[in-house]
Amino acid sequence: MINELVKKIKETNNPICVGLDPQLTFIPDHVKEKAYKEHGETLAGAAEAIWQFNKAIIDATYDLIPAVKPQIAMYEQYGIEGLIAYKRTLDYCKEKGLVIIGDIKRGDIGSTSSSYAYGHLGKVQVGSKSYYPFAEDFATVNPYLGSDGVKPFIDVCKEENKGIFVLVKTSNPSSGEFQDQLVDGKPLYELVGEKVAEWGDLHMGDDYSYVGAVVGATYPEIGKELRKIMPKTYILVPGYGAQGGTGKDLVHFFNEDGLGAIVNSSRGIIAAYKNQQYEKLGPLNFQDAARAAVIDMKEDINSALI
Fold it and tell me: For the domain that residue 239 is a member of, what is the CATH number?
């Protein structure tokens, strides 16, 4: 699947991933009112509003982008109804030909880790039949439990030709409380990066590994260091836009071939109509604001890479 992701990035000339992280505060009133009229102010109503919002965003941007990254917690908070909206979103993204990065941040050991991997990336057996429960193309994985937590995902990735993105240096301000601590003279994130490169050697695509890394745009100098440590690793870069990252911050996340990284923006795109730059479009045209934000982000990143 890493080959497919690289192919889509080349086709669109756009290393952008739209984060489908809907919150009810992001969804315009007219979308919520329609959903509530049909389902009431219930969990089902919230889920319907999320689905309709997502569908509109996807319809407005799918021809511009290679991938999406739905964050599962935004759906799980609404229970089973929310997970149904998550699954509907995944299926629709597949119909539109988008690569899906399931932002699930799972990490456990043994059969538990395998179950997460099969549930999201693989298939499960039910009697004589098998099913793909969620069928994302990639999943984000927390490496805190070490190889015992990551290798079950790699095993499923090998079976299904799927991939993972391992948390290495995250974009949040407190990430340094653990990730920056020195171990034998090296920051922990560097040791994790070395391990990601090692895991990646077990599962290579044509030019890049199926084992990717998550490195925040808010730490460009660290990104530069990690790029050297993980030359064959695709880097998923959160933190653009709303968290402060800009195109010029991202240069060192990419390799000389102009590939090697995919940059995520969530509320900067899906809630763009709330930003002063796009507010003239208004809530009724929220999807048009999302499209405009993608185009502007693409120009910002590509101009920085020239």
Answer: 3.20.20.70
User: How does pLDDT run across 173-196, given as a tens digit for each residue?
Assistant: 899 999 999 999 999 999 999 999
**Rounded average pLDDT over 73-94:** 98
Hey, how many other C-beta atoms are within 10 angstroms of the C-beta on 164? 30
The span from the CA of 234 to the CA of 239, in Å, is 16
- Give the count of domains, the chain: 1
Joined together, the tokens standing for residue 93 give 């993204």
Domain containing 134: what range?
2-305
Instruction: Report yes or no: 183 and 229 within 8 Å, Cβ to Cβ.
Output: no
Q: What is the mean pLDDT of the chain?
A: 95
Is the confidence at residue 4, as pLDDT, over 80? yes
Catalytic site positions: 105
Find all residues with CB under 8 Å of 227, minimum gap 6, and list them: 235, 252, 253, 254, 255, 260
Nearest residue to 200 (alpha-carbon basis) of 213, 190, 191 = 213
Burial of 64 (0-12, 13-18, 19+ CB in 10 A): middle
Query: Would you state the pLDDT for residue 244?
Result: 60
3-state secondary structure of 54: helix
pLDDT at residue 243, as a whole number: 57
Q: What is the pLDDT of residue 242?
A: 62
Distance of CA 280 to the CA centre of its chain: 29
Compute φ and ψ for 22, nearest 5 degrees: -70, 135
How many other C-beta atoms lie within 10 A of the C-beta of residue 89? Answer: 23
Nearest to 16 by CA among 299, 304, 306, 287: 299
